[in-house]
């Protein structure tokens, strides 16, 4: 702790307060301390992080009672059981737990103070975090030593096992496919700050483009590289994409293909283009990612990447059970392979000749 204090130019008392989670320092200071602690390897050292509670101190479960896993889905605005994406991951978690006779307790909570009430119930084996979770919440889980696995999210400061789809590779292959059928002006649509998955998908897109350096496509990377849009439902994406497309059409600079960070964005993009009289895929090809049910029900059916959502949930459970059995084993990042699905929303570029 003295090393962290010296590194930040604060007192050891401030560092202790920040790492204890008991308050007394601002949220900004706590984040700085956590960041410095991670950079200095504090969390990775055996026994270096003094826990305020050990799992052995938790109440014992009477024989015959059902043990459960805590599933944390804190972003209740869209990460719900009804979600076409997150709900399917939850289905996989529930199915796999049921196989071994375990229960599941779902918690939607952003407040660290409130969340602490859920960390000590009888029979909690560990935690599976689904989607974006704040660092302070994960710090509390790490502090008491509760085994945890994160699905579709990782925190660069708090060590944990994680389960993802191979987002980078899938978007790379999808981008290369569009390049291969003649598209020279491609745009990634999505906010890379939204999630680690979105960032990895953009990196796959960008990597495929960078291989085209020296070509017409390579020279247009900066101009057509990314359109950041925010929201959760396709209706929220439609209007900003529509306004962006209007400006591009006036400038005669509309890309020939839009590679969207997920299906919801892609659906919004298709609707926006159709309202402007832009044919999909005749004028502009559009791709999504995730393969939610709406992606193949729409017209045209959406070219996308199938994310094995239920399998993500099942593998998270298996990883958690393995972590409980081998607490000292190295952390693992598991990547499940996605599958490219070529449907009617993409076609050869107009100028393409074999």
From TrEMBL:
**What keywords appear on the UniProt entry?**
DNA-binding, Repressor, Transcription, Transcription regulation
Asked if the Swiss-Prot or TrEMBL record annotates the protein with the keyword Manganese, the reply is no
Any idea where the HTH lacI-type domain is? 1-55
The source's domain of life comes to Bacteria
Pfam families with a match to the protein in the record: LacI, Peripla_BP_3
The answer on whether this UniProt entry bears the keyword DNA-binding reads yes
Cite the InterPro entries for this sequence.
HTH_LacI, LacI/GalR-like_sensor, Lambda_DNA-bd_dom_sf, Peripla_BP_I
Molecular functions per Gene Ontology? DNA-binding transcription factor activity; transcription cis-regulatory region binding
Record's protein name: LacI family transcriptional regulator
- Species for this entry: Paenibacillus prosopidis
